[in-house]
Design goal:
This protein is α/β, with parallel strands linked by helices and about 150 residues long. It has one domain: 5'-nuclease (Rossmann fold, 3-Layer(aba) Sandwich), CATH 3.40.50. It has a five-stranded parallel β-sheet, with helices on both faces. The chain is globular. The N and C termini lie close together (about 10 Å). The relative contact order is 0.21.
C-alpha cells in the first residue's frame, strides 16, 4: 500500500499529480483518497515533503488557460502554506543532475521528460529517498524509490 511504503521514508518528493488530485477531487475521487493520505502524513510531520517550483508552474498552466482564478488561488494556497513541505528552487546543481539523469535513461532508451527529471533531481538533492507519483512511466528510475498509487 502506498501509505505504508511512504512511512518507510523520512523525506519524499511529491509529483504534480498528487496536488491535482487534492484540488480536483471530484474528477479524481479514488486518487484523491491516496493523495490525501500522503499529504496528511506530511501535514502531521510524519514525513517531510519536497516539491519544486516546477510543480507550481505545471499546476497553474491549465487554470491560467481557462481563466480559473479560483483554481489558481487554491493551488498557490495549497503549495505555499503547507506545513512540512519545502518548495525548492531550481539550482544549477539540480539542473546538472536532471541532465545527467536524462542522459543516463536516454542511453537506456527510456524516456525521462525534462520536467520529470527536474522533479526527481530536486527530490534527490533535497535528500528524499522516495518520489510519490501516479505516473507509472517513472517506474524505471533507480536513484530513489518510486512510489506509485495502487489504483
Amino acid at each position: 500500500m502506498t501509505f505504508n511504503k511512504c512511512l518507510e521514508h523520512k523525506i519524499v518528493g511529491i509529483d504534480t499529480n498528487i496536488f491535482i488530485y487534492i484540488i480536483e477531487y471530484k474528477k479524481y475521487p479514488l486518487q484523491a483518497g491516496y493523495a490525501r493520505q500522503i499529504l496528511q502524513l506530511i501535514e502531521k510531520g510524519e514525513l517531510f515533503g519536497i516539491t519544486s517550483v516546477i510543480n507550481l508552474m505545471e499546476l497553474l498552466v491549465l487554470p491560467e488557460k481557462e481563466g480559473r482564478i479560483d483554481l489558481i488561488n487554491k493551488y498557490k494556497l495549497l503549495l505555499k502554506g503547507f506545513p512540512h513541505l519545502k518548495i525548492s528552487d531550481i539550482t544549477a546543481e539540480i539542473a546538472e543532475l536532471a541532465a545527467s539523469l536524462r542522459g543516463k535513461y536516454l542511453r537506456e532508451n527510456k524516456k525521462l521528460l525534462s520536467v520529470d527529471a527536474l522533479l526527481v533531481a530536486t527530490s534527490i538533492i533535497n535528500k528524499a529517498t522516495a518520489f510519490v507519483t501516479n505516473d507509472r512511466q517513472l517506474s524505471f528510475v533507480q536513484e530513489l524509490e518510486i512510489i506509485n498509487f495502487e489504483v
